[in-house]
Prior knowledge:
The structure is a homodimer. Chain A is about 75% helix and about 0% strand. By secondary structure, chain A is mainly α. Chain A is globular, with a radius of gyration of 24 Å. Mean pLDDT of chain A is about 85; it is low at about 1-30. Chain A binds a DNA duplex through helix 1 and helix 4.
Amino acid sequence: MSEAKTAKSRSKSVDVEAADPAVSSAPVERPRLRDAERTSKAILAAATKEFAERGYGGARVDAIAERAKINKRMLYHYFGGKDALYVAVLEGSYVAIRSAEARLDLSHRSPSEGMRELVVFTWKYFLDHPEFLGILSTENMQKARFLKRSARIFELHSPLVAEISGLLDRGVVAGDFRSGCDPVKIYMSIAALGSFFLTNRWTLSTIFQRNLSEKSEIDAWGEHIIEVIFAYLRP
Amino acid sequence: MSEAKTAKSRSKSVDVEAADPAVSSAPVERPRLRDAERTSKAILAAATKEFAERGYGGARVDAIAERAKINKRMLYHYFGGKDALYVAVLEGSYVAIRSAEARLDLSHRSPSEGMRELVVFTWKYFLDHPEFLGILSTENMQKARFLKRSARIFELHSPLVAEISGLLDRGVVAGDFRSGCDPVKIYMSIAALGSFFLTNRWTLSTIFQRNLSEKSEIDAWGEHIIEVIFAYLRP
DNA sequence: CAGTCATGTAACTATATAGTTATTTACGGG
DNA sequence: CCCGTAAATAACTATATAGTTACATGACTG
């Protein structure tokens, strides 16, 4: 009923407007009303934030639609539903960090420089992409039940392990690193030190009464990670 | 509600049980039907699990009531609401770990032994109390907004820092540790390595195709933490 | 230049969810 | 032994929330 009214009044106003542009404007790059890519990207970005901040269960579909400034129906149109959207966010997050990492090219540096580069990159990436850590956090809270669905996740990570492995081998030959280190353990240690500080800094700041979000504290912790990793690798 | 059936069978079984202790035992700890302490403890335990597993936003009050096998009304009676219950869970979690820690008495050991003891304790505590890490995770996702409300949290932690500080000083004097280490950084490193492995093992297992929940992997990581910390402390 | 379909909107539905109200029941002091 | 009260229950309410339906429209293609 109310729709009939709306429809009518709308088609009327359109008739009126139809005359307008013909008179007033040229075909300039007006922001396109209908843009599938823009819309779906906006949804994904908004969903990433919402899921990272509130977790899977705490995230609200309506809140995502509002953040993206799109109609909720579009979210279902492009992604199917909350679950599928979450999976898209999850995969997108891993693809993003692994792509950035792949641009590092550690093999053209000395082992020590390469390792430092990897640590610094990881630390900076975590720092600049808080939503990545948030997504990991909520995904792990659910024991990775959604990540397991994703087939192409493993192949995304083998290059990383190979890269670190090469770095370690070269470091042993050069006498910079001790032998027998597990590349996965090394990566996990780097990630652990970086991730824990950033994700837990809110409770840590409270319990130790020390503002860990200050730049000086953040910089100091970045240095600390390097020291710890190099101490561990020292022959 | 579907609980009607349960309730009926419950009051029956309690009637039966009520006779039992009278015959068998002194007027001690028979399972009282109306037991404020038991009920509120059951609620707190159930809430801890629910919040740890699903996060603050994902936790459901009805689910907590069901887990605790109590009527939802009791939850409001004892705790006031979801928020207040969550705060109780949060405080309880910190009190529990700090109390256990306080029983360590590190000062009667050699610095190296004391440090090893602290690392092993922390690792084991995290391992045995997964809900603690879950609570921290969801609390940090909310930037510690509830923890900040808790006044008595800081004083709970200063003894820990003092204890580590003493350990480090003695270690420097004994020539076991290098000087200039920050006790808070040391503790955070221990916690980081332990916490990250356990909370993130689900996604890590998936991306590295390696079952990190296996005992051998868990034990190996425990050893790894010790190695990393001692490498860092080495003069 | 008309028809078609991807893009978009508003309003709706069924269920879930936090919190309440009205009421009953067991415990223990007098 | 009985009565006031704390402990417990069931049934309810208002709102939030995931997901849908019905319809509109702009842009592109044949």
